[in-house]
Design brief:
The chain is of the alpha/beta class. The chain is about 45% helix and about 20% strand. It has 2 domains: about 5-145, P-loop containing nucleotide triphosphate hydrolases (Rossmann fold), CATH 3.40.50.300; about 150-430, no CATH class. It contains 17 helices and 14 strands. A hairpin with a 2-residue loop joins strand 10 and strand 11 (about 375-385).
């Protein structure tokens, strides 16, 4: 059974005074239903589960008046085994995007306060279904992702103590013992190939069969494409699908700025910009914005018209490449794609830790993969997939733009100079 960090967040919510209804959002198949169901069974005496996708007839519960007394009666009548006991019950409204009036009802549950309420659904539906009266001010939001690298380590038997030991080497800037370093690099490469989708990770941990992993990943990609057809409107269906399928093509280029002309000859932001934002809102992609200047505040210096696009789950990106790519990553033989894939997994790690993504490119001469705030300083981060970790761009931004701190991530052990620290790729989770 996979351990997920969201369990701690759900428990904090349960124990918080004055809490509102909780809406847990996330892309398809990241483990929302499983995690909330497990939390409910472990922490409440009474638990009622309503799924508007599996049981569309449950939508009728919310067709009439939305006062809580009426809703309790309707739930008791229509949901087998439902027990709603004041102060001891969690009501879980799953796939709530399929019942807009249930979302409206969250306001009245929040005011009533007799029951704890969690609602969940895919970002696709939650962002694109009409809600006549959204309960602003009466809900809290929590976004869930596929497994991050630390959760992947737990799934593969790495203990919290071992992770803490590795973090100690990071904090002290000391080399990791060779055997531990090699094992962590092996696990990191496996994370790149497997990604963090729970069903895929479960299969990998149980069988270590990469063919089965790929089969499950391709099924998820097909589900995403089906969802685009289901939730996008009109011409948006074709355009969003074209943007989605163009991502590997963009990452194969030396210059990775997203270009609409790679989606379609003569493609423009006017035609495809909304479709790309649709994929972002659906939790499928991340944006990484170019900075006009590499200085704080990063968001204030971001250029909205110049950006790179990364997949939110690197395992799914791998499944979009040609056959044999998984083996190539494990063996280190993937050529130009290798750098892009390593960038993608670091972008995913940063995003899951709450960081917004920025990079700096100037005049096709300087390009630094990421800029983050680390130890209160603007920090340049370069991702290196090859043994040669020299970086003219890193040196240039330190010498010419007043950047005080640089970090290189590669397969090498801990090292570096006064201005530029070098860390193994797996230590990105500590930044």
């Amino acid at each position: 059974m996979l351990r997920r960090k969201i369990a701690d967040e759900l428990l904090k919510w349960k124990n918080r005074e004055g809490k509102m209804c909780l809406v847990v959002k996330g892309a398809r198949q990241v483990g929302k239903t499983f995690s909330i169901d497990k939390f409910a069974r472990e922490n409440y005496a009474y638990y009622t589960y309503i799924n508007f996708d599996e049981n569309p007839t449950y939508r009728a519960i919310f067709d009439g008046d939305l006062d809580v007394a009426t809703l309790i009666k309707q739930i008791s009548l229509r949901v087998p085994g439902a027990e709603l006991v004041q102060g001891e019950t969690l009501l879980f409204l799953d796939e709530i995007q399929n019942c807009p009036r249930a979302r409206t009802a969250l306001k009245f549950f929040a005011i009533d306060k007799r029951f704890d309420i969690i609602a969940s659904g895919s970002l696709l539906g939650i962002n694109y279904k009409d809600v006549p009266s959204y309960p602003v001010g009466y809900v809290e939001h929590l976004e869930m992702y596929s497994l991050d690298f630390e959760e992947f380590l737990w799934a593969n038997g790495v203990t919290e103590r071992s992770v803490a030991d590795i973090k100690e080497y990071f904090n002290k800037r000391e080399k990791v013992p060779s055997a531990m370093h090699e094992k962590m690099m092996e696990l990191f490469k496996e994370y790149i190939v497997v990604g963090g989708m729970p069903r895929v990770v479960d299969e990998f941990v149980g069988t270590h069969n990469f063919a089965n992993v790929l089969r499950l990943q391709k099924a998820i990609i097909n589900d995403y494409i089906d969802d685009i057809a289901k939730y996008a409107e009109g011409a948006e269906k074709t355009k969003a699908r074209a943007c989605f399928l163009s991502i590997p093509k963009h990452l194969s280029k030396d210059y990775k700025k997203f270009r609409y002309s790679l989606v379609e000859s003569h493609g423009t932001a006017r035609k495809f910009g909304g479709s790309l934002m649709w994929l972002y809102d659906a939790g499928i992609i991340n944006f990484c914005y170019n900075l006009s200047l590499p200085e704080l505040p990063l968001e204030g210096n971001a250029r909205s018209d110049c950006f790179k696009v990364y997949m939110r789950d690197t395992g799914l990106l791998m499944a979009m490449l040609e056959e044999g790519s998984q083996e190539d990553i494990i063996d280190g033989n993937l050529g130009i794609y290798k750098g892009a894939i390593y960038e993608n997994v670091i972008a995913d790690i940063f995003s899951k830790s709450g960081k917004k993504l920025f990079y700096f490119e100037y005049n096709s001469q300087i390009e630094v993969d990421f800029f983050i705030r680390h130890s209160k300083l603007v920090t340049a981060v370069e991702v290196k997939s090859a043994e040669n970790t020299k970086s003219k761009s890193m040196t240039a931004v330190i010498e010419n733009y007043g950047v005080k701190q640089g970090i290189k991530l590669s397969s090498k052990n801990v090292g570096g100079t006064d201005a530029i620290d070098s860390y193994p790729l797996y230590m990105a989770m500590f930044l």
